[in-house]
Amino acid sequence: MVPLSVLDLATVSEGATPAEALADTVALARQAEQLGYRRIWVAEHHGMPSVASSSPPVLVAHLAASTRTIRIGAGGVMLPNHAPMVVAEQFATLEALHPGRIDLGLGRAPGTDPATARALRRRADVGADHFPEDVVELFGYLADVERPAAQPAITPGIGYLPEVWLLGSSLFSAQLAGLLGLPFSFAYHFAPDLLDQALERYRATFRPSFVLEHPHVMVAVSVLCAEDADEAAWLAGPAALSILQLRAGNPAPLTTPERAAATELSPTERAIVERATASHVVGDPRSVAEGLARLVERTGTDELMVSTRAHSLEVRVRSLTLVAEACGLGGAPAPR
Q: In which band, very low, low, confident or very high, does the pLDDT at 118 lie, cut at 50, 70 and 90?
């Protein structure tokens, strides 16, 4: 099995607060470190009642200070929402504080609705047309590369380059990552349709850079593991229901498995959920390990990133523990 990592959204569950969700993410990071996961990333989302990771740099700083060895990163920072210089300063500071442990995943989606994107960017243009130029500008602040003479220097800056990834769910991001010679992480956990084409495009267009000599791929996949398949399916109910709520424009804190199981779905709604979760790996330890192994064989990925959306911290920790044991990570088992 390839190295495994964790993607966490600081999930706000029904009846809980954002503060409790953030504390759960800290606890999860510590457990992931003990279990032998390579890295834990948090994602930038805005205006979502079930997600408390609206400020990745702040959360990354706290997670890095709360752990010792696991890599900590943003998966990702939605670069069009921010000035490249600001992101460079934030992550150069993090790299200076925690050398060799910081990852910066860059995405070009807004991570929110258009109205919130306009409020974030303070302008009417909420597109991502300048994303390639913004990525190049960001590197100009942190690496000894050719840059415009007018580009200012920052402190910390050159010499404090975190591990930079391009994130994507499309062929555009895959090709850009290849042309820039950057590692590429594909969002299979919510956009499975273009996985094979995107990885093929990335590898075909890859050019060696000062960052990376050969293509390097990570695939993010939704996983929920429990002692038996029926329990896993039941525990995965809230995440499935949240997909439907989001698509209906009615996002809410993640509900309980009991409430999710009691929710009546129309045939159309059930079809939407089944299609959206077809790529999820849900089941007992053996079936989950086999599902992940098939994904590795299919894609040739260098790493897998596990995303587990569940109502409670206990379920998420237990799932990560069972996955670690089934895939032979070799870390210390988490408390049962």
A: confident
Q: Within a 13 Å sphere around the CA of 129, how many CA atoms are in the beta-carbon half?
A: 3
Under 8 Å CB-to-CB from 129, ≥6 apart: which residues? Answer: none
Beta bridge partners of 31: none
Interatomic CA distance for residues 47 and 61, integer angstroms: 22
* Residue matched to tokens 């709360």: 66
Q: Average pLDDT, whole number, for the chain? A: 93
Cα angle at 112 between 79 and 242, to 5 degrees?
Answer: 130
Residues 224, 239 contacting (CB under 8 angstroms): yes
Look at the block and give the residue holding tokens 């029904």.
14
Residue type, 177: A
State which amino acid sits at residue 110: P
Q: Which two three-digit tokens encode residue 142?
A: 């942190």
| Amino acid occupying residue 223 | V
Q: Report the CATH number of the 4-224+285-327 domain.
A: 3.20.20.30
The SS3 call for residue 66 is helix
C-alpha 215/C-alpha 301 separation (Å) is 10
Q: What is the pLDDT of residues 187-196, one digit of tens each?
A: 999 899 999 9
- Count of all residues that appear for the chain in the document: 336
Distance CA 197, CA 183 (A): 16
Sign of dihedral through CA atoms 169, 171, 173, 175? positive
Dig out the tokens for 41 from the structure. 């990333």
Helix or strand holding residue 231 (H, E): helix 229-235
Q: Is the pLDDT of residue 335 over 50?
A: no
pTM attached to this predicted model: 0.94
Cα separation values, 215 from 9, 182, 207, 293, Å: 27, 8, 8, 20
**Where does 160-230 show beta strands of DSSP type E?**
163-168, 184-186, 217-225
